[in-house]
Amino acid sequence: MGGTETHGYDLVIEFAEQACQDIVSAFFDSGGVLSDLLDGIGAPSGIADAFSVVLAFDRPSGVPASNPDVVDIQILLGEGGTGSIGHLRIVAGINVDPTAGLDVVRIDLANRLHSTELEVTGLPGPANTALNVLFRNALRNNIRSIPLVPIPVERTSTSTTTIVAGDCRVVDDTAAADADAAAFLLTFGGGAAGNRNGFTRSFLAPSDTGGIAISFDWLCRVVSPLIDDALNLGGAFSGCTLTRTVRIDADREVDLTALSMSLDTDFIRVAARVRKTGFCYEATGTVAARIRMEVVGGELLVSAEVEDPDVDVDIPWYCWLAGAVIGAIVAGVIGAVLVPLIIYIAQEAVEGTINSVAQRVAEAVNSLNLSTTLPVPGVSLVFQRVFIDDVTVGCDVAVSDHVPIRSEGTVRLASGMAVDLDSGRVGPVDVASADLACVGHFFGRELRATCGARLARTDLNRIDGLMRSAVYGFAYDAPNPVSLDELAQINPWGMLFGDPYQESRRVYAVHTNEGRYSVVQAVEVDHAAITLRYRTWEKRVPTLEIRGEFRCESGVNVRPDGVRFVPSRALENLGVNTGRNPSHDATYDTPVAVPDPCDALTGVVRSMVPNSIVEDKALRVIPLADRRIGRWLGTAIYQSRGVGRFDAVTQGFGADVKVWWSINDVGLADDEGDITLPGATVHFRVDDKRLVVTPNTEKELEFLLTVTAVDEAGQTLTTRRCVRYQPTCKSDDVRHTPTWTEYQTAWLTNFGVVKAPIPQRIG
After folding, report:
1. Where in 344-487 does DSSP place strands (E)?
2. pLDDT tops 90 at residue 290
């Protein structure tokens, strides 16, 4: 089963056509890229103020099969998505541009632009033909590429959680489902590239716009050393399998004979076996756990379910001649050594380690931050489902466009009032520059566009995460009134007991009279007024932002001197084999129970049942996860990577933007060098718009970053940001997986020797 979805790659991320379409839409909209492009070739001004993008991975006719990974982009000019003003078409190939620290998956317009089309309504054919030539040249020479996903890489890394190479494959599904997608193929340290030609169908579910497939082989590379270190196996655990028997308790001659991880239906199975031999007996114990992945509230959660352990004792026939003496010895071995050992394997060595490993795997997946600091749309993943084959995680791809917000908030409109969505001002219906007015009374109220603004109905029900380009494709009109019954339905019961209106939460788009786009949503309706939530995007305004940070790696170690043991309250209060009376222990505040009228009868019945059965039943009513003897907590020490990466992100600038960096107001004139700060020397490297900073210090550091951007027209912006560097970071109360010696000490100190029945010979 391993590798069936990833085709040998360590991890594969797939975006459906819709997700890639959103990325391209945001690219052309952010900073007015499309408007600038068409203005630059002399196309009529304003034809790109609104547009819709249609993207397809079906291979267009005329493009030979020898040209792989082709995308067909059509841009319909004008509101409403009909192309009423004209259309553009771009047929190009997707490839990977390797740069320092990044493999950028991009639509390559400079080298793989197969064809273009341009038609502006109302222009004669020769004019459109001439403009198309200029359009094609501008794409090749000026735009050059459309970035889809920047993949951070470290080429020489051997870390299993660090990407060393990225690739891309367009999945052109020719089956009836036509489930086309773009597959981003990732290789981590210690791995090798798979078979990119194996991607002939998408693993996405119809409802998903994205998904992640995790190779089980990669999963094994990640978790095997973690398990080996946690159990102190000395390199014996490799490739998710224990390669040799390991003596885990030399004093008592206890061996770990088997430990493995394998794929099963909808979960990953972990199995372990221990063995102890002695005079006239051989005792073995097995335990298994299931690693499950599920989606809760849009987040990927990984958990471990440990099954009940099983203990088996084999005694040769001749040893039964020794009778009770042998039985007592075996019982002591079982009670003092084997039972706590098996429970340790189940609850700490397996569950604790696997839970830690599971968290590490989840962090490795979630840390694939596709929203990098490049000036491309931000991308985030909202997990939807998990399927274990390798491990496939379905998700929605949410794309943000970083278009500046002009105004947003909540306003309350009574009848006869209006709102200027460009500023948020509310006033009388005839207020200057108003965009949306509330007219009528009671159930006859309605919202209508006013003063040159235009309104459109959408099929949307949320404002958060919405891109400006997403509202271009709707049909705008004026006054285009929206009646009250569209905003809210009358609730007869609410008329008697409170709120008579049940809001529909529909989103409406408005093209304001100042030329901006806005969305509004009725969040509350009552007899007196309509409360609207609104967001208005800015028109093209140049912006400059510093993005990036110093990062801390996921848990490196736990400080040994800070580890403490916390006994299980459930077992203490139950009084299981502790030898102590919890009611006399001030550490445990057991609540006073209300007397049960059946206590007397229950006591009589229990007196008739062997005590061992009573204790066993009392223990089993406690959930398995709570039966562990306690927890080991410590302080995790995280080591900082020591490298900060910062990017100057520009929007709304013209062509040929240049940037200049400074640290503490000292300009960085060279591409690479050192700068002296109070108490530290900092190495820097400038790569286009990226600044890489490496402090040479073990102390905390603070400095001021400044960047200035200038385009060829002389448009200039400067921004500053204070940056703080910490060489380490700490997190308290991290669960620590104890060694067997630590576990045994805690067992004997807090709980004593478990009573076990003397094995009886059968037959």
Report:
1. 378-387, 391-400, 405-414, 417-420, 425-428, 436-439, 446-449, 454-457, 482-483
2. no
SS3 state of residue 205: coil
Q: How far apart are CA 240 and CA 354, in angstroms?
A: 12
How far is residue 652's CA from residue 284's CA, in Å, rounded to a whole number?
Answer: 70
- Determine the straight-line distance between the first and last CA of the chain, rounded to whole angstroms: 45
Residue with tokens 């509330």: 438
* E strands, 153-280, in order: 163-171, 181-188, 210-214, 237-238, 241-242, 246-249, 254-264, 267-278
Cα gap 236→443, rounded to integer Å: 76
394 is written with which tokens?
């379905």
Q: Which tens digit of pLDDT belongs to each residue from 423-455?
A: 999 999 877 789 999 999 888 999 999 989 999
Mean pLDDT of 244-252: 80
The answer to whether residue 758 scores a pLDDT higher than 50 is: no
CA pair distance 594, 617, nearest whole angstrom: 22
As a whole number, mean pLDDT of residues 417-423 equals 95
CA-closest candidate to residue 757, choices 418, 330, 415: 330
**Residue pLDDT, tens place only, 506-561:** 999 999 998 899 999 999 998 889 999 999 998 866 778 898 888 665 445 666 66
Question: CA-CA distance, 124 to 732, in Å (whole number)?
Answer: 72
Q: Residue 115 is encoded by which pair of tokens?
A: 């064809």
State the Cα–Cα distance between residues 116 and 132, nearest whole angstrom: 7
Residues for the chain: how many in total? 763
- Structure confidence at residue 364 (pLDDT): 45
What distance in Å separates the CA atoms of residue 147 and residue 99, rounded to the nearest whole number? 13
Q: Which runs of consecutive H residues, i.e. helices, occur in 96-175?
A: 125-138
CA atoms within 13 A on the CB side of 664: 11
Sign of the CA dihedral 143, 145, 149, 151?
Answer: negative
Question: Does residue 519 contact residue 466 with C-beta atoms inside 8 Å?
Answer: yes
For residues 694-716, give the mean pLDDT.
86
Helix, strand, or coil (residue 752): coil
- Per-residue pLDDT tens over the stretch 559-605: 666 777 887 765 555 444 444 433 333 333 334 444 555 555 445 54
Residue 143 DSSP SS3: helix
Give the type of residue at 414.
A
CA atoms of 449 and 511, how far apart (whole Å): 9
What six digits make up the tokens of 227?
């398990």
φ and ψ of 261, to 5 deg: -125, 135
Domain residue spans in the chain? 11-204, 215-374, 405-537
Q: What residues contact 617, with CB distance under 8 A and at least 6 apart?
A: none
pLDDT tens digit string along 185-214? 999 999 999 999 999 889 888 888 888 888
Cβ–Cβ contacts within 10 Å for residue 497, how many? 9
DSSP string, 80-102: GGS-SSEEEEEEEEEEEEEETTE
